[in-house]
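Worked problem 6 (solution included).
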Amino acid sequence: MVTKAEAETMLNEGDRIAQTVATRRPKEHVPYVGVGVLTALVIPGFDLFDRMTWGWVTIAIAIAGYCACMTYFGSRRWIAVRERSLE
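Solution. The predicted structure is:
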């Protein structure tokens, strides 16, 4: 038989683990917002600067954005779900 105090302790531990999982998972909206902001900043440059030069700048920004996305998702710890014994 589980006492009330033990049950509360188990529930609190479960809440703590759930919060840890939530903070470690990648937030997919972050890169998409970044891509939207970069697009909004890059497109007007084709009207303001030489198109050939700005095209190379855009390619460099795209490569940097790709590296930033891969670094972001790579730095997140993926959590493996496994069955646990009840012993």
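Discussion: The chain has one domain: 4-75.
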